[in-house]
Design a protein that fits this description.
The protein is built from seven helices and no strands. By secondary structure, it is mainly α. The chain has one domain: DNA polymerase, domain 1 (Orthogonal Bundle). Helix 3 packs antiparallel against helix 4 (58-66). It is globular, with a radius of gyration of 13 Å. Mean pLDDT is 76; it is low at 1-21.
Length: 96
């Protein structure tokens, strides 16, 4: 499963590059590349991916990090689990 942006550059985002995802801006996140294999994503990589999705996902970055959502865990999130985390109330989906 690949959730990364195909227009990403060649270097992988890592904890050493990013530090804490919420400490970087969305513009900075857009410049970072993510490993195409989501299984390899750290919690910070998930934060970068969320920032790349759009500013409406910024509130979710800390929530996911606080709940240790790595790439492997991201792939296992269900609608029910997202609701338990409060994501549906934090993010307004486009088109709604």
């Amino acid at each position: 499963m690949s959730l990364s942006d195909s227009s990403s550059s060649t270097s992988a985002a890592s904890s050493s590059q990013v530090g804490r995802s919420s400490s970087i801006s969305r513009a900075q996140a857009l410049q970072l590349a993510l490993d195409p294999d989501v299984n390899n994503w750290s919690e910070d990589d998930v934060g970068v991916w969320l920032l790349k999705l759009g500013e409406e996902f910024e509130p979710v970055v800390n929530l996911f990090r606080d709940n240790n959502i790595s790439g492997r865990r991201l792939q296992r999130l269900t609608d029910d689990k997202l609701q338990q985390l409060g994501v549906s109330s934090m993010v307004q989906h486009k088109g709604e």
